[in-house]
Amino acid sequence: MFWLLAILAYLLGSLSFAILLSRMSGLADPRASGSGNPGATNMLRVAGKRLAILTLIGDLFKGLLPIMVAAHLGYGLQQQAWLGLAAVVGHLYPLYFRFRGGKGVATAAGMLLGLYPPAALLALCTWLLTFVLTRTSSLAALTAAPLTLPLLAWQQPAALLPMCVLSGLIVWRHRSNLRDLWAGRERHF
């Protein structure tokens, strides 16, 4: 049953709310404009606040739902974390959209919210503080995800390995942003 849930979590994660909402609104594919990322930040740039908020909510839900289902079925925290990670991988490499997905930050936040809400709160506060100081969404995401790891190691060590993999994936998906940050070319709000 666990592997079936992992496949379903991946398929759920493969739903790109940015792309679907853009299509339903008669807008161009968000991967073709702005940063080229089908996520809430780029939706804010190319489609406005309303669609950005809906994208954020949808992407959060994709990470949260597998955790809630797994918890309801009695799976342990580590198994819940692996199922949440499957949803994030679906967001990063969506089956339905030629494996061209987003950066996984909102879906990871939903996963973290389901696993251990204090870590999600830490990530949110870190993201907000970094964003307010730098006006750079990518830097905020790159700071927030790894900063939760010490807290998880201390309070929820069963979730640490999947969350380390998740942090590595988020850094990997932001590698072009890292190059732009080093070169001083990264987009700011």
From TrEMBL:
The entry's keywords: Acyltransferase, Cell membrane, Lipid biosynthesis, Lipid metabolism, Membrane, Phospholipid biosynthesis, Phospholipid metabolism, Transferase, Transmembrane, Transmembrane helix
Name of the gene encoding the protein in the UniProt record: plsY
Classification lineage: Bacteria, Pseudomonadati, Pseudomonadota, Gammaproteobacteria, Pseudomonadales
Pathway stated in the Swiss-Prot or TrEMBL entry: Lipid metabolism; phospholipid metabolism
Similarity section: Belongs to the PlsY family.
GO cellular component entries: plasma membrane
Protein name as annotated: Glycerol-3-phosphate acyltransferase
Record's keyword annotation contains Transmembrane helix: yes
Described function: Catalyzes the transfer of an acyl group from acyl-phosphate (acyl-PO(4)) to glycerol-3-phosphate (G3P) to form lysophosphatidic acid (LPA). This enzyme utilizes acyl-phosphate as fatty acyl donor, but not acyl-CoA or acyl-ACP.
GO molecular function: acyl-phosphate glycerol-3-phosphate acyltransferase activity
Compartments it resides in: Cell membrane
Catalytic activity: an acyl phosphate + sn-glycerol 3-phosphate = a 1-acyl-sn-glycero-3-phosphate + phosphate
Domain of life according to the entry: Bacteria
UniProt source species: Phytopseudomonas seleniipraecipitans
GO biological process, one term: phospholipid biosynthetic process
